[in-house]
Amino acid sequence: MKEYLIMSHLFKVVLSIFAFFLAAGQAEAGKLEVELSQARQATALYHNLDNALIDGYVDIGVYVPGMGHHYLNFSYVDDAFEVDKPEVLVYANSEAGGKLRLVALEYLIPAALSASAPEGFTGDEDHWHINQDINMWALHAWIWYHNPDGVFSDLNDRVD
Known about the structure:
alpha+beta, single chain
């Protein structure tokens, strides 16, 4: 009987620990979804490229297969990650008519201003990397076009 009580108590402790971590993970996932929603709300008007140009985004002449055309807002380049102020908007060629459509955001922080990967979105899914060509920490967020490799993947095989 004593062994049964010990095992029962141990089971309850393990179950409580599991429930705690499950709840923490769900809360973190919920916060990430809120942040991605904030990014969508802040950039929805940029589906119309003219709005992006009016707000200071400029075509920097960078096209990367698997990403698209990059439009940078130089005034946003600093040492802060701001979910609602992506430094770069990424556009891909539309299947219909060659028009550009917004597919992703890119966040940039100069490496000279941050020795380590910036704190970005909640959780561990966002993997910043140093873009050696421009010496900046970079993070893509595919919030406007599904990426089967994940929202924070650098490349999207679905984009020409």
